Amino acid sequence: MRSLLAGKKILFAISGSIAVYKTAAWVRELVLAEAEVTVVMTEAASRFVSSLTFAALSGRRVYTGMFEHDAGEAMTHISLASECDLFIIAPATAQTIAKLANGLADDLLSTLALANRAKLLVFPAMNSAMYCHAATRANLARLQEYGYTVIAPEEGKLACGEEGVGRLPDWETAREEIAAACSVQDLQGQTVLVTAGPTWEALDPARHLGNRSSGKMGYSLARSARRRGADVILVSGPCSLTPPPGVETVHVTSARQMHDAVLAHYDRADIVVMAAAVADYRPKKTMAEKVKKSGRATTLELVANPDILKKLGSRKKQAKRPLLVGFAAESSDHLAEGERKLLQKNLDLIVINDIAGSDTGFEADTNQVSILDKEGGLEKLPLLSKDECGTRILDRVVALLQ
Predict the structure, then answer these.
(1) Residue 51 clears pLDDT 80, i.e. is over it
(2) Which of 347-351's residues contact partners 24+ apart within 8 Å by CB, and which partners?
(3) Catalytic one among 84, 160, 182, 389?
Protein backbone atom coordinates (compact mmCIF):
# COMPACT_ATOMS: atom_id res chain seq x y z
CA MET A 1 0.00 0.00 0.00
CA ARG A 2 2.00 2.92 -1.36
CA SER A 3 2.14 6.16 0.62
CA LEU A 4 0.92 9.39 -0.97
CA LEU A 5 4.38 10.86 -0.29
CA ALA A 6 6.37 7.90 -1.60
CA GLY A 7 9.09 9.05 -3.96
CA LYS A 8 8.34 12.75 -3.48
CA LYS A 9 11.48 14.89 -3.38
CA ILE A 10 11.02 17.29 -0.47
CA LEU A 11 13.38 20.17 0.24
CA PHE A 12 13.05 20.91 3.96
CA ALA A 13 14.51 24.25 5.06
CA ILE A 14 14.94 25.02 8.76
CA SER A 15 15.58 28.46 10.26
CA GLY A 16 16.68 29.38 13.77
CA SER A 17 13.87 28.87 16.27
CA ILE A 18 13.50 26.74 19.38
CA ALA A 19 10.77 24.94 17.42
CA VAL A 20 13.52 23.20 15.42
CA TYR A 21 13.19 20.28 17.83
CA LYS A 22 9.70 19.56 16.47
CA THR A 23 10.87 19.42 12.87
CA ALA A 24 13.24 16.55 13.67
CA ALA A 25 10.16 14.38 14.20
CA TRP A 26 8.62 15.76 11.00
CA VAL A 27 11.65 14.73 8.95
CA ARG A 28 11.54 11.26 10.45
CA GLU A 29 7.82 10.87 9.64
CA LEU A 30 8.36 12.03 6.05
CA VAL A 31 11.14 9.49 5.59
CA LEU A 32 8.92 6.75 7.06
CA ALA A 33 6.32 7.78 4.45
CA GLU A 34 9.01 7.05 1.82
CA ALA A 35 9.63 10.66 0.83
CA GLU A 36 13.15 11.69 -0.21
CA VAL A 37 13.97 14.52 2.20
CA THR A 38 16.89 16.92 1.76
CA VAL A 39 17.44 19.26 4.71
CA VAL A 40 18.80 22.81 4.50
CA MET A 41 19.65 24.63 7.74
CA THR A 42 20.56 28.21 8.50
CA GLU A 43 23.53 28.86 10.77
CA ALA A 44 21.13 29.88 13.56
CA ALA A 45 19.11 26.65 13.19
CA SER A 46 22.22 24.51 13.64
CA ARG A 47 22.81 26.21 17.00
CA PHE A 48 19.57 24.68 18.29
CA VAL A 49 19.96 21.17 16.80
CA SER A 50 23.05 19.77 15.11
CA SER A 51 22.98 19.11 11.38
CA LEU A 52 24.18 15.59 12.24
CA THR A 53 20.76 14.90 13.75
CA PHE A 54 18.99 15.72 10.50
CA ALA A 55 21.56 13.85 8.42
CA ALA A 56 20.87 10.73 10.50
CA LEU A 57 17.09 11.16 10.31
CA SER A 58 16.96 11.90 6.58
CA GLY A 59 19.74 9.56 5.52
CA ARG A 60 21.06 12.37 3.34
CA ARG A 61 23.58 15.16 3.40
CA VAL A 62 22.44 18.34 5.15
CA TYR A 63 23.24 21.68 3.48
CA THR A 64 24.12 24.65 5.67
CA GLY A 65 25.87 27.21 3.48
CA MET A 66 26.03 28.77 0.05
CA PHE A 67 29.65 27.76 -0.48
CA GLU A 68 30.13 24.19 0.70
CA HIS A 69 33.81 23.27 0.66
CA ASP A 70 33.22 20.10 -1.40
CA ALA A 71 30.54 21.48 -3.75
CA GLY A 72 32.96 21.71 -6.68
CA GLU A 73 31.38 23.52 -9.61
CA ALA A 74 27.80 22.64 -8.59
CA MET A 75 25.46 25.57 -8.00
CA THR A 76 23.68 24.18 -4.98
CA HIS A 77 21.07 26.92 -4.76
CA ILE A 78 19.92 26.09 -8.30
CA SER A 79 20.24 22.31 -8.32
CA LEU A 80 18.44 21.73 -5.02
CA ALA A 81 15.59 24.05 -6.00
CA SER A 82 15.12 22.56 -9.46
CA GLU A 83 15.04 18.96 -8.26
CA CYS A 84 12.36 19.19 -5.54
CA ASP A 85 8.63 18.42 -5.77
CA LEU A 86 7.82 20.39 -2.61
CA PHE A 87 9.68 23.07 -0.62
CA ILE A 88 8.92 23.34 3.12
CA ILE A 89 10.23 26.06 5.43
CA ALA A 90 9.66 25.08 9.07
CA PRO A 91 10.06 26.74 11.43
CA ALA A 92 10.02 30.05 9.57
CA THR A 93 11.26 32.83 11.86
CA ALA A 94 10.29 36.50 11.59
CA GLN A 95 13.75 37.18 10.13
CA THR A 96 13.37 34.51 7.44
CA ILE A 97 9.85 35.67 6.58
CA ALA A 98 11.08 39.26 6.23
CA LYS A 99 13.85 38.13 3.87
CA LEU A 100 11.46 36.13 1.71
CA ALA A 101 8.92 38.96 1.58
CA ASN A 102 11.55 41.39 0.34
CA GLY A 103 13.32 39.08 -2.09
CA LEU A 104 16.62 39.04 -0.20
CA ALA A 105 19.05 36.25 -1.02
CA ASP A 106 21.92 36.42 1.46
CA ASP A 107 22.02 32.76 2.57
CA LEU A 108 21.25 29.35 1.08
CA LEU A 109 17.66 29.19 2.36
CA SER A 110 16.57 32.56 0.98
CA THR A 111 18.41 31.99 -2.30
CA LEU A 112 16.70 28.63 -2.74
CA ALA A 113 13.31 30.27 -2.18
CA LEU A 114 13.94 32.67 -5.06
CA ALA A 115 15.17 29.89 -7.36
CA ASN A 116 12.39 27.49 -6.39
CA ARG A 117 9.54 26.63 -8.79
CA ALA A 118 7.80 23.98 -6.71
CA LYS A 119 4.97 24.58 -4.27
CA LEU A 120 6.29 26.26 -1.13
CA LEU A 121 4.85 25.80 2.37
CA VAL A 122 5.77 28.28 5.11
CA PHE A 123 5.22 27.34 8.78
CA PRO A 124 5.80 30.48 10.91
CA ALA A 125 6.89 29.98 14.53
CA MET A 126 7.87 32.77 16.92
CA ASN A 127 6.87 34.75 19.99
CA SER A 128 3.26 35.94 19.89
CA ALA A 129 4.18 39.65 19.93
CA MET A 130 6.51 39.14 16.98
CA TYR A 131 3.91 37.16 15.03
CA CYS A 132 1.19 39.76 15.65
CA HIS A 133 3.43 42.72 14.78
CA ALA A 134 2.19 44.69 11.78
CA ALA A 135 5.48 44.15 9.93
CA THR A 136 5.26 40.36 10.24
CA ARG A 137 1.59 40.35 9.23
CA ALA A 138 2.42 42.46 6.16
CA ASN A 139 5.32 40.19 5.26
CA LEU A 140 3.15 37.07 5.51
CA ALA A 141 0.48 38.70 3.35
CA ARG A 142 3.12 39.43 0.73
CA LEU A 143 4.29 35.80 0.77
CA GLN A 144 0.73 34.74 0.03
CA GLU A 145 0.63 37.22 -2.85
CA TYR A 146 3.76 35.51 -4.20
CA GLY A 147 1.85 32.21 -4.18
CA TYR A 148 3.42 30.71 -1.06
CA THR A 149 1.13 28.70 1.21
CA VAL A 150 1.33 30.04 4.78
CA ILE A 151 0.11 27.72 7.54
CA ALA A 152 -0.95 29.70 10.59
CA PRO A 153 0.76 28.78 13.87
CA GLU A 154 -1.19 27.40 16.80
CA GLU A 155 -2.08 29.07 20.06
CA GLY A 156 -0.81 27.86 23.42
CA LYS A 157 2.17 27.84 25.77
CA LEU A 158 5.26 29.27 24.06
CA ALA A 159 8.90 28.42 24.78
CA CYS A 160 9.38 31.85 26.40
CA GLY A 161 6.73 30.96 28.96
CA GLU A 162 4.03 33.23 27.56
CA GLU A 163 0.65 32.15 26.24
CA GLY A 164 -0.39 33.13 22.75
CA VAL A 165 -0.28 32.38 19.05
CA GLY A 166 3.05 31.40 17.53
CA ARG A 167 3.51 27.67 18.21
CA LEU A 168 4.63 25.45 15.36
CA PRO A 169 1.75 23.04 14.64
CA ASP A 170 1.94 19.41 15.72
CA TRP A 171 2.82 16.78 13.14
CA GLU A 172 -0.81 15.73 12.56
CA THR A 173 -1.67 19.19 11.23
CA ALA A 174 1.58 19.53 9.29
CA ARG A 175 1.06 16.11 7.69
CA GLU A 176 -2.32 17.12 6.29
CA GLU A 177 -0.94 20.37 4.85
CA ILE A 178 1.95 18.50 3.25
CA ALA A 179 -0.36 15.78 1.91
CA ALA A 180 -2.68 18.45 0.45
CA ALA A 181 0.28 20.12 -1.24
CA CYS A 182 1.13 16.79 -2.89
CA SER A 183 -2.46 16.07 -3.96
CA VAL A 184 -4.31 17.11 -7.10
CA GLN A 185 -6.82 19.79 -6.09
CA ASP A 186 -9.66 18.27 -8.10
CA LEU A 187 -12.28 18.98 -5.41
CA GLN A 188 -11.41 22.65 -4.98
CA GLY A 189 -14.55 24.78 -4.84
CA GLN A 190 -16.67 21.79 -3.78
CA THR A 191 -18.30 21.33 -0.38
CA VAL A 192 -18.35 17.70 0.74
CA LEU A 193 -20.62 16.50 3.56
CA VAL A 194 -19.48 13.20 5.11
CA THR A 195 -21.15 11.17 7.85
CA ALA A 196 -19.12 8.75 9.95
CA GLY A 197 -19.25 6.38 12.87
CA PRO A 198 -22.14 4.69 14.66
CA THR A 199 -25.19 6.15 16.33
CA TRP A 200 -26.16 5.26 19.88
CA GLU A 201 -29.81 4.93 20.86
CA ALA A 202 -30.34 5.36 24.59
CA LEU A 203 -32.09 2.66 26.64
CA ASP A 204 -31.48 4.31 29.99
CA PRO A 205 -28.73 6.56 31.46
CA ALA A 206 -26.26 3.62 31.47
CA ARG A 207 -27.08 1.64 28.32
CA HIS A 208 -27.63 2.11 24.60
CA LEU A 209 -28.21 0.22 21.38
CA GLY A 210 -25.26 0.65 19.05
CA ASN A 211 -23.07 -1.05 16.48
CA ARG A 212 -19.37 -1.80 15.92
CA SER A 213 -18.63 1.06 13.51
CA SER A 214 -15.35 2.79 14.41
CA GLY A 215 -15.80 5.78 12.07
CA LYS A 216 -12.47 5.06 10.34
CA MET A 217 -13.91 4.91 6.81
CA GLY A 218 -15.84 8.17 7.12
CA TYR A 219 -12.90 9.98 8.71
CA SER A 220 -10.62 8.73 5.92
CA LEU A 221 -13.06 10.08 3.32
CA ALA A 222 -13.22 13.45 5.07
CA ARG A 223 -9.42 13.59 5.28
CA SER A 224 -8.98 12.69 1.60
CA ALA A 225 -11.59 15.22 0.43
CA ARG A 226 -9.93 18.01 2.41
CA ARG A 227 -6.51 17.07 0.98
CA ARG A 228 -8.00 17.40 -2.51
CA GLY A 229 -9.12 20.96 -1.85
CA ALA A 230 -12.75 20.53 -0.73
CA ASP A 231 -14.46 22.33 2.11
CA VAL A 232 -15.47 19.40 4.30
CA ILE A 233 -18.27 19.05 6.84
CA LEU A 234 -17.98 15.89 8.95
CA VAL A 235 -21.06 14.77 10.90
CA SER A 236 -19.67 12.20 13.32
CA GLY A 237 -21.38 9.77 15.59
CA PRO A 238 -19.65 8.79 18.88
CA CYS A 239 -16.17 7.39 18.23
CA SER A 240 -12.65 7.75 19.60
CA LEU A 241 -11.07 9.30 16.49
CA THR A 242 -9.64 12.82 16.28
CA PRO A 243 -11.25 14.84 13.46
CA PRO A 244 -8.87 15.65 10.59
CA PRO A 245 -7.35 19.17 10.78
CA GLY A 246 -9.17 21.75 8.69
CA VAL A 247 -12.47 19.85 8.70
CA GLU A 248 -15.67 21.37 10.14
CA THR A 249 -16.91 18.70 12.53
CA VAL A 250 -20.39 18.28 14.04
CA HIS A 251 -20.62 15.69 16.82
CA VAL A 252 -23.88 13.80 17.33
CA THR A 253 -24.99 10.75 19.26
CA SER A 254 -28.34 9.42 18.03
CA ALA A 255 -29.79 8.76 14.58
CA ARG A 256 -32.27 11.60 14.98
CA GLN A 257 -29.47 13.99 15.89
CA MET A 258 -27.54 12.87 12.81
CA HIS A 259 -30.68 13.33 10.71
CA ASP A 260 -31.09 16.90 11.96
CA ALA A 261 -27.39 17.75 11.51
CA VAL A 262 -27.26 16.40 7.95
CA LEU A 263 -30.39 18.31 6.93
CA ALA A 264 -29.05 21.48 8.58
CA HIS A 265 -25.93 21.40 6.37
CA TYR A 266 -27.39 19.67 3.31
CA ASP A 267 -28.03 22.83 1.29
CA ARG A 268 -24.35 23.77 1.49
CA ALA A 269 -23.17 20.48 0.02
CA ASP A 270 -22.19 19.67 -3.56
CA ILE A 271 -21.37 16.07 -2.59
CA VAL A 272 -22.84 13.99 0.24
CA VAL A 273 -21.11 10.76 1.34
CA MET A 274 -23.16 8.82 3.89
CA ALA A 275 -20.55 6.49 5.41
CA ALA A 276 -22.07 6.38 8.91
CA ALA A 277 -23.66 3.19 10.24
CA VAL A 278 -26.94 4.76 11.34
CA ALA A 279 -29.13 2.65 13.65
CA ASP A 280 -32.31 1.51 11.90
CA TYR A 281 -34.25 1.33 15.17
CA ARG A 282 -34.35 2.94 18.61
CA PRO A 283 -36.15 1.99 21.84
CA LYS A 284 -39.71 3.23 21.86
CA LYS A 285 -39.18 4.47 25.38
CA THR A 286 -36.00 5.70 27.06
CA MET A 287 -35.95 5.16 30.81
CA ALA A 288 -35.09 8.15 33.00
CA GLU A 289 -33.44 5.89 35.60
CA LYS A 290 -31.16 2.90 35.15
CA VAL A 291 -33.18 -0.30 34.74
CA LYS A 292 -32.35 -2.72 37.55
CA LYS A 293 -31.55 -6.35 36.88
CA SER A 294 -34.47 -8.55 37.92
CA GLY A 295 -33.49 -11.96 36.54
CA ARG A 296 -36.70 -12.13 34.51
CA ALA A 297 -36.96 -12.10 30.72
CA THR A 298 -37.88 -8.73 29.30
CA THR A 299 -39.10 -7.37 25.99
CA LEU A 300 -37.71 -4.28 24.31
CA GLU A 301 -40.07 -2.48 21.95
CA LEU A 302 -38.35 -0.68 19.05
CA VAL A 303 -39.49 1.95 16.57
CA ALA A 304 -37.92 2.90 13.25
CA ASN A 305 -35.45 5.75 12.95
CA PRO A 306 -35.71 8.15 10.00
CA ASP A 307 -33.98 6.86 6.84
CA ILE A 308 -31.64 9.80 6.21
CA LEU A 309 -30.27 8.52 2.91
CA LYS A 310 -33.71 7.81 1.50
CA LYS A 311 -34.88 11.31 2.44
CA LEU A 312 -31.87 12.86 0.71
CA GLY A 313 -32.51 10.76 -2.39
CA SER A 314 -36.10 11.93 -2.47
CA ARG A 315 -34.99 15.56 -2.29
CA LYS A 316 -32.47 14.94 -5.04
CA LYS A 317 -35.25 13.92 -7.46
CA GLN A 318 -36.42 17.50 -7.42
CA ALA A 319 -33.13 19.41 -7.10
CA LYS A 320 -30.79 17.11 -9.12
CA ARG A 321 -28.10 17.82 -6.56
CA PRO A 322 -26.00 17.13 -4.59
CA LEU A 323 -24.11 14.10 -5.87
CA LEU A 324 -25.16 11.38 -3.44
CA VAL A 325 -23.02 8.45 -2.28
CA GLY A 326 -24.36 5.75 0.02
CA PHE A 327 -22.79 2.81 1.84
CA ALA A 328 -24.16 -0.69 2.22
CA ALA A 329 -22.59 -2.79 4.97
CA GLU A 330 -23.63 -6.34 4.14
CA SER A 331 -22.86 -9.85 5.37
CA SER A 332 -24.49 -11.70 2.44
CA ASP A 333 -25.96 -11.04 -1.04
CA HIS A 334 -23.72 -7.99 -1.20
CA LEU A 335 -24.22 -6.86 -4.80
CA ALA A 336 -27.95 -7.58 -4.88
CA GLU A 337 -28.51 -5.59 -1.69
CA GLY A 338 -26.30 -2.79 -2.91
CA GLU A 339 -28.15 -2.52 -6.22
CA ARG A 340 -31.51 -2.50 -4.43
CA LYS A 341 -30.47 0.36 -2.15
CA LEU A 342 -28.90 2.29 -5.03
CA LEU A 343 -32.18 2.31 -6.95
CA GLN A 344 -34.55 2.58 -3.99
CA LYS A 345 -32.73 5.58 -2.51
CA ASN A 346 -31.90 7.36 -5.78
CA LEU A 347 -28.13 7.35 -5.31
CA ASP A 348 -25.38 8.22 -7.77
CA LEU A 349 -22.96 5.71 -6.24
CA ILE A 350 -23.12 3.04 -3.57
CA VAL A 351 -20.12 1.54 -1.80
CA ILE A 352 -20.72 -2.06 -0.76
CA ASN A 353 -18.52 -3.60 1.91
CA ASP A 354 -18.43 -7.04 3.50
CA ILE A 355 -18.69 -6.69 7.27
CA ALA A 356 -18.21 -10.43 7.85
CA GLY A 357 -14.49 -10.46 7.03
CA SER A 358 -11.78 -10.15 9.69
CA ASP A 359 -9.87 -7.44 7.79
CA THR A 360 -12.81 -5.58 6.25
CA GLY A 361 -15.78 -3.60 7.53
CA PHE A 362 -16.25 -2.47 11.12
CA GLU A 363 -13.22 -1.67 13.31
CA ALA A 364 -10.63 -2.90 10.77
CA ASP A 365 -7.90 -0.63 9.39
CA THR A 366 -8.40 -2.08 5.91
CA ASN A 367 -11.39 -2.47 3.65
CA GLN A 368 -12.36 -4.25 0.44
CA VAL A 369 -15.34 -2.68 -1.29
CA SER A 370 -17.29 -2.72 -4.52
CA ILE A 371 -18.48 0.55 -6.05
CA LEU A 372 -21.70 0.46 -8.07
CA ASP A 373 -23.13 3.37 -10.06
CA LYS A 374 -26.67 3.95 -11.33
CA GLU A 375 -25.60 3.11 -14.90
CA GLY A 376 -24.69 -0.39 -13.77
CA GLY A 377 -20.95 0.21 -13.70
CA LEU A 378 -19.20 -1.96 -11.11
CA GLU A 379 -15.67 -1.60 -9.74
CA LYS A 380 -14.32 -4.13 -7.26
CA LEU A 381 -11.38 -2.74 -5.29
CA PRO A 382 -8.64 -4.92 -3.78
CA LEU A 383 -7.93 -4.96 -0.05
CA LEU A 384 -6.69 -1.46 0.78
CA SER A 385 -6.07 0.74 3.78
CA LYS A 386 -9.13 2.80 4.60
CA ASP A 387 -7.25 5.96 3.59
CA GLU A 388 -6.47 4.50 0.16
CA CYS A 389 -10.01 3.14 -0.10
CA GLY A 390 -11.36 6.65 0.60
CA THR A 391 -9.11 8.06 -2.11
CA ARG A 392 -10.37 5.53 -4.67
CA ILE A 393 -13.99 6.24 -3.80
CA LEU A 394 -13.42 9.96 -4.30
CA ASP A 395 -11.72 9.20 -7.63
CA ARG A 396 -15.09 7.83 -8.77
CA VAL A 397 -16.89 10.88 -7.40
CA VAL A 398 -14.56 13.22 -9.31
CA ALA A 399 -15.09 11.20 -12.49
CA LEU A 400 -18.86 11.68 -12.12
CA LEU A 401 -18.44 15.41 -11.55
CA GLN A 402 -16.45 15.71 -14.75
Answers:
(1) yes
(2) 347/309, 347/313, 347/374, 348/323, 348/324, 348/373, 348/374, 348/400, 349/323, 349/324, 349/325, 349/373, 349/374, 349/393, 349/396, 349/397, 349/400, 350/325, 350/326, 351/275, 351/325, 351/326, 351/327, 351/393
(3) 160
